[in-house]
Design goal:
399 residues, alpha+beta, Beta-Lactamase, Heat Shock Protein 90, 2 domains, 5-stranded antiparallel β-sheet, 5-stranded mixed β-sheet, 10 helices, 13 strands
């Protein structure tokens, strides 16, 4: 898109330059033809070369006219004051066979001077135009053309942006369908793996218990991920009820315990109590995404802080890591779908997390001032009742 804009701007600049040059040349030709016609008229045998006659000519062409003989004597003039300018006029154009249009300095200021030989009588006829005649006439001609060119450029830019947006939307829609299909196909095998691991764990020797627990917890995590992928392109439905925020967060930490330990990531908990109105499964999905995002930001291992505060109007959960943080240039599109700074990332975790949060009446934002590292802040409304309510939530991605 940037290359297209640069090429379009260069094309417009070139078009403007060529248009200005062509229109200036056309105006000069028109003035020259008008000048030659005036000279032929005044030099004609039947034309009464007198001051009244030149005044009529001046009124017709809207410019002062003076005829000067070959000896420098004024033959006729449209304004008596022009007689004083005759020496300067002759000095500016002493004579020649072809008409000329040039700039000249007279006693009252600069003028565009048209000069042409006076056929049949000798001498020359001088026409005094306004100083900006050429530029003004050219400007009145090329400005509309340039305006049309700019409108055409804006139209082309708008079409380009629209086309690019359509391509992105179609690509996103195709990827969404693919993710939903893949998630659907892996959901049932994951359930079987989880059930089998738990069944074997009940009969396993103590030394085999930990690997089987890891298999079951990873199956749970992948099932949550599959559910999330399936819902990327679908309206979000919530089954909201009062649930304990800290307990849900601790449950996710236990779910990811083996994986985080394997990646040498330690989680420090500081959770104040709070009962929130939310869909517990969707709360778990959001916290899973944020914790894994924090772990991904520290590929060599590190620290993650999970902190909750009971604020006056909402229960606030903060997930903070010790990674490199989010570049300012990337913050604007951080929650857009299929945008990821990780080589192997799909770019749906933060997008899905914000959708789920907003569907539950909560908010999810990046706090850029909480560095070093990245800090994501969830703000959940407090529970109003303990009765569950199934609601087709407003989908922020579809508004």
């Amino acid at each position: 898109m940037l290359r297209f804009l640069a090429a379009a701007a260069a094309l417009v600049a070139l078009s403007v330059g060529v248009t200005v040059w062509l229109t200036t040349q056309a105006v000069e030709r028109r003035v020259g033809e008008e000048l030659l016609h005036t000279a032929r008229l005044l030099g004609g045998a039947g034309f009464p070369l007198s001051d009244p006659a030149l005044r009529r000519v001046a009124d017709y062409i809207d410019a002062e006219v003076i005829a000067v003989g070959a000896d420098g004597r004024v033959l006729a003039q449209s304004d008596p004051r022009l007689a004083l300018e005759a020496p300067r006029l002759v000095a500016a154009w002493p004579g020649g066979k072809e008409p000329r249009v040039l700039q000249a300095e007279l006693s009252h200021g600069a003028v565009t001077l048209g000069a042409a030989p006076l056929p049949g009588r000798g001498g020359a006829v001088y026409v005094l135009y306004p100083a900006d005649l050429i530029a003004g006439e050219a400007r009145r001609t090329w400005l509309p053309l340039v305006g049309l060119g700019l409108l055409a450029l804006l139209g082309a830019l708008g079409l380009g942006v629209y086309s690019e947006r359509r391509v992105q939307e179609e690509r996103s829609a195709a990827l969404t369908r693919l993710l939903a299909a893949v998630a659907h196909e892996v959901r049932n095998p994951l359930g079987a793996i989880r059930s089998l691991a738990r069944s074997l764990g009940r009969r396993a020797q103590p030394r085999d218990q930990q690997p089987l627990d890891l298999i079951a917890s990873e199956a749970d995590r992948l099932a949550l991920l599959a559910d999330g992928l399936r819902s990327v392109g679908l309206p979000v439905r919530t089954l909201r009820r009062a649930c304990d925020g800290p307990s849900t967060a601790r449950e996710v930490v236990r779910l990811l315990e083996h994986q985080l330990a394997h990646r040498r990531v330690e989680v420090e908990l500081d959770l104040q109590p709070g009962s929130i109105q939310a869909d517990p499964a969707q709360v778990r999905q959001i916290v899973v995404n944020l914790l894994l995002n924090a772990a991904d930001a520290q590929p060599e291992g590190g620290q993650v802080w999970l902190e909750a505060r009971a604020c006056p109007e909402a229960w606030e959960l903060r997930v903070r890591d010790a990674g490199p943080g989010v570049e300012p240039a990337a913050q604007a599109r951080l929650f857009a779908p299929f945008v990821s700074s990780k080589p192997k990332g799909l770019g749906v975790g933060l997008y899905l997390s914000r959708r789920l949060a907003e569907a539950n009446g909560a908010t999810l934002d990046l706090d850029p001032s909480a560095g070093p590292g990245a800090c994501f802040v969830l703000r959940w409304p407090y529970a109003e009742s303990d009765s569950p309510s199934e609601l087709p939530a407003r989908d922020p991605a579809r508004t």
